Amino acid sequence: MKLIVCEKDLAARRIADILSGGTNWEEKSHTIPIYKFSQSGEEFRILGLKGHILQVDYPEEYNNWRKVEPRELIFKQLVKVPINKNVINALKKAARDAHSAIIATDFDREGELIGMDAVGVIREVNPGLEIKRARYSAITRSEIQQTFQNLEEPYEHLAEAGRARQEIDLIWGAVLTRFISLTSTRLWDNFLSVGRVQSPTLVLLVQRELEIRDFKPTPYWQIKVRLKDGGEEFEAFHKTRRFLRKEEAEEVFARLGEEGLVTSIREVERKKAPPAPMNTTVLLSSAAKLGLSPASAMNIAEGLYMRGLISYPRVDNTVFPPSIDIRGVLLTLKASPQFRKMAEELIASKRFVPTRGKKQSTDHPPIYPTDGASKEKLSPQEWKVYELVTRHFLATLAEEALQMTMQVDIDISGEPFYISGSRIVREGWLRYLPYFKSADVILPQLKEGEKVQVLNKEILAKETQPPPRYTQGRLVEKMEELGLGTKSTRHSIIKSLYDRGYVVGNPLVPRETGIAVASTLIKHAQKISSPEMTAELEQDMDRIVEGLHQKDQVVGRSREMLDEIMEVMEKEREEIAADIRNGVREDEVVGKCRTCGKDLRIKRARKSRKRFVGCSGYPQCTEAYPLPQKGKIRSTDEVCPDCGTLRITVINKGRRPWKLCLDPECPTKKELVGSGRKSKRGEN
DNA sequence: GCAAGGTC
Question: Which positions are catalytic residues (predicted)?
Answer without folding.
Answer: 312 (o-(5'-phospho-dna)-tyrosine intermediate)
